[in-house]
Write a structure and sequence with these properties.
By secondary structure, this protein is of the alpha/beta class. The protein has three domains: 17-268, no CATH class; 300-384, STAS domain (Transcription Regulator spoIIAA); 399-511, Transcription Regulator spoIIAA. The protein is built from 21 helices and 19 strands. The protein has helices at residues 9-14, 32-49, 60-66, 77-85, 94-102, 113-127, 142-153, 174-191, 204-212, 227-232, 240-244, 248-255, 257-288, 330-333, 349-364, 376-384, 421-425, 429-436, 453-468, 480-488, 501-511; strands at residues 19-22, 25-28, 53-58, 88-91, 130-135, 158-163, 195-199, 220-223, 300-301, 311-314, 318-319, 336-340, 346-347, 368-372, 399-406, 410-419, 440-451, 473-476, 496-498. Strands 4-3-8-7-5-6 form a six-stranded parallel β-sheet, sandwiched between helices. Helix 19 (453-468) links the parallel strand 17 and strand 18. Helix 8 (174-191) crosses helix 19 (453-468).
Length: 517
C-alpha cells in the first residue's frame, strides 16, 4: 500500500486483534512482536485520522484496583472505563495469562511493559521515530536515567524529551490540574514525539492521559508504571526463568519486602476471590455441556448496509473470536450498529472480549453500538464475567445538560448520560454560568450513568465559582458509581451531597434561614 494512501476501513479493522475478557477488561491476544507491530501501525494511522491512542499494560494490581472485595462491586469506575476504551491492552503479568487459560481462552504470552520498552526503543531507532519519557521518580531522576540507558543500548533512538512533573488526580488541587496539564502537554506537543511513555503509576497515568487525550498531538501514549525503574537500573529484573514461570513477584518481594508484601498479599487474595466465580462457571459449563456443540461461526447481516439505517447483525449460536474476526462491510459504513443475540446459545471468553473490542472501536468512531434480544442465559454469562454493565441493550449513552429556575431563587442543572473528557470539554461553561445567574444551585446527577475526572473537575469549578459569590451549591441524587468517583478523587468532603432534589432544596432553605411553604 502506498504510504500516502490512507488505510481502508477493512484494513484498519484487520489490524485490531482478538481479545479475551478477564474480569470485565478485554486483554488483546498478542505476542511481543504483534504488540510492537501494532504500536507502529497506530503511529502510521495517526497521520490520517489524528487520533491519539493509548496502550495499557495490565497486571493483577490493575484489576484489584478496579474492584472492591465485594464481588462485582466497582471500586474505581474511571479506571475500568479507561481500560475498556484503551486501543491496546496487554497482559503484563503471568496471572492474567493463567486466568485466560482457566476461562477457556488463550493469551499467547505475557507482554510486560518492562520488556516492551526496549523492543520499542530498538524499532524506533531503526525507523527514526522519537520517544518522550514522562514521569518516574522525580528526585531520583528515573526517567532521565532510563532514557540515557536506552540510548546507550540503541544509539539511533531519537529522544524527544524527558519530564517528571507533579500531576494531580485527586483532592482539592484538581481545580488547578487543568492549568498544570496544559503546560505539560504544550511541552510534549512542542517536542513532537511519536511515542509518549508515561510512568505515573496506575491509575494516575491512565487518568492523566484520558483527561488530556484531546490536547495531545502524539500518535501513541503507553502507560508503563514502574518500567522506568528497570530501564534505569534502580530496580533489578528477576532471572529469565523466574519471569517465564510467573515467579518474578517473589524476586521483587525479596528486594522490597516492606513496600510490597501488603500489596502482593491483597492482590493475591482479591484476584483469587474475583476470578473464582468465573472459573467455576466455565468449568461447570464445560463438564455439563450445557451449551450444544455447533460449527456455526458465520456472522450474517440482516438489515440494509447503506449506513442510512441501523445495521443489525445476527450472531450465530456460538459467539467466539472467530465469529467477529472478519466483519461485514456494513459495519464500516453504518453509524448505528446492533448485534442480535436471539440465536446465541454459547459464548466464549475470547468472543465476549473481542465484542468488547468492537465496542471500543464504535466508541472511538462516534458510533452507536447496541445489543438486541439478549436472553437470561446470556445476561447471566455477562454478569458472571463482570461484563453486564458494559453490554446492556443500549451500550452508548449520550450526554445532556439542562438548566431551569426553581422557586426560591434556585437554579437546577440536570446532567444525564456519560460525562467523560470529551463531553465535559464540549460543555459551554460560560453559557451555563450565565443561565444559572446569581442563584443557589443544585446539580442533579441522578441520570448520570458515568462521570470521569474531567467531569469532577468541571463540577468542582462550578462549585467554587458559585460559592465565591456567596450562594449555595449542592450535588443531588448521585448514583453509586458517581459517589464512588467522588470518594476515589477525595472530593466528597468538598461538596454538599443530598439524596434527592427535595432534600437539596430543604438544605438550601435551611442554610438561608427560610421556611418551606
Amino acid at each position: 500500500m502506498d504510504q500516502n494512501t490512507p488505510p481502508k476501513p477493512a484494513e484498519r479493522e484487520k489490524a485490531m486483534s482478538d481479545a479475551a475478557a478477564i474480569l470485565g477488561i478485554p486483554i488483546d491476544k498478542l505476542t511481543m512482536e504483534d504488540a510492537v507491530s501494532h504500536i507502529f501501525e497506530m503511529i502510521s494511522r495517526y497521520e490520517y485520522d489524528q487520533r491519539p491512542r493509548y496502550v495499557a499494560t495490565v497486571n493483577v494490581d490493575f484489576i484489584t484496583n478496579i474492584y472492591s472485595w465485594r464481588w462485582g462491586r466497582t471500586r474505581h469506575p474511571e479506571l475500568k472505563y479507561i481500560l475498556r476504551k484503551a486501543d491496546m491492552v496487554t497482559a503484563d503479568g503471568m496471572p492474567i495469562v493463567w486466568a485466560a487459560r482457566w476461562l477457556g481462552a488463550s493469551l499467547p504470552m505475557r507482554v510486560a511493559g518492562s520488556d516492551l520498552v526496549p523492543k520499542l526503543a530498538e524499532v524506533a531507532a531503526q525507523t527514526g521515530k522519537s520517544i518522550y519519557f514522562l514521569g518516574g521518580r522525580r528526585f531520583e531522576m528515573t526517567a532521565h536515567r532510563a532514557a540515557r540507558e536506552l540510548r546507550k543500548q540503541h544509539p539511533g533512538m531519537k529522544l524527544a524529551g524527558v519530564d517528571a512533573p507533579w500531576v494531580h488526580t485527586a483532592g482539592e488541587a484538581l481545580d488547578q490540574a487543568e492549568d498544570e496539564d496544559v503546560r505539560i502537554v504544550e511541552r510534549i506537543n512542542a517536542a513532537r514525539p511519536d511515542i509518549l511513555l508515561v510512568a505515573f503509576g496506575s491509575p494516575k497515568q491512565e487518568i492523566w492521559f484520558d483527561r488530556n487525550r484531546h490536547r495531545l498531538k502524539v500518535p501513541v501514549t503507553i502507560g508503563f508504571g514502574a518500567s522506568f525503574d528497570f530501564q534505569a537500573g534502580t530496580t533489578a529484573r528477576a532471572p529469565l526463568w523466574m519471569q517465564h514461570s510467573g515467579m518474578e513477584w517473589a524476586f521483587r518481594l525479596c528486594q522490597e519486602p516492606k513496600r510490597l508484601w501488603k500489596r502482593y498479599l491483597v492482590d493475591f487474595l482479591k484476584f483469587g476471590k474475583l476470578i473464582l466465580p468465573s472459573v467455576i462457571n466455565h468449568w461447570l459449563e464445560t463438564v455439563k455441556r450445557i451449551f450444544p456443540k455447533t460449527t456455526g461461526e458465520v456472522l450474517t447481516e440482516s438489515h440494509d448496509s447503506s449506513g442510512r439505517d441501523p445495521v443489525v447483525f445476527s450472531l450465530p449460536k456460538h459467539l467466539s473470536a472467530k465469529t467477529l474476526s472478519s466483519l461485514p462491510e456494513g459495519l464500516q459504513s453504518a453509524s448505528e450498529i446492533s448485534f442480535d443475540f436471539a440465536d446465541v446459545s454459547r459464548i466464549d471468553t475470547d468472543g465476549i472480549g473481542t465484542l468488547a473490542r468492537r465496542w471500543q472501536q464504535a466508541e472511538a468512531d462516534g458510533k452507536l453500538l447496541s445489543l438486541l434480544r439478549v436472553g437470561p442465559d446470556q445476561r447471566t454469562y455477562l454478569f458472571r464475567n463482570l461484563m453486564a454493565d458494559l453490554f446492556t441493550d443500549t451500550v452508548k449513552d449520550s450526554f445532556s445538560c439542562l438548566s431551569e429556575h426553581l422557586p426560591g431563587n434556585i437554579a437546577l442543572v440536570r446532567l444525564s448520560g456519560i460525562l467523560d473528557t470529551r463531553r465535559a470539554g464540549g460543555l459551554n461553561y460560560q453559557k451555563l454560568l450565565k443561565d444559572i445567574g446569581p442563584r443557589d444551585c443544585i446539580f442533579d446527577i441522578s441520570n448520570l450513568s458515568y462521570i470521569g475526572s474531567s467531569g469532577l473537575m468541571l463540577i468542582l469549578k462550578f462549585s467554587k465559582h458559585i460559592l465565591s459569590t456567596g450562594n449555595c451549591f449542592v450535588v443531588s441524587s448521585p448514583k453509586e458509581n458517581a459517589r464512588q468517583m467522588f470518594r476515589m478523587a477525595d472530593l466528597q468532603r468538598l461538596f454538599v451531597i443530598r439524596s434527592d432534589n427535595s432534600e437539596a432544596k430543604s438544605f438550601i432553605y435551611d442554610i438561608r434561614g427560610e421556611r418551606k411553604s
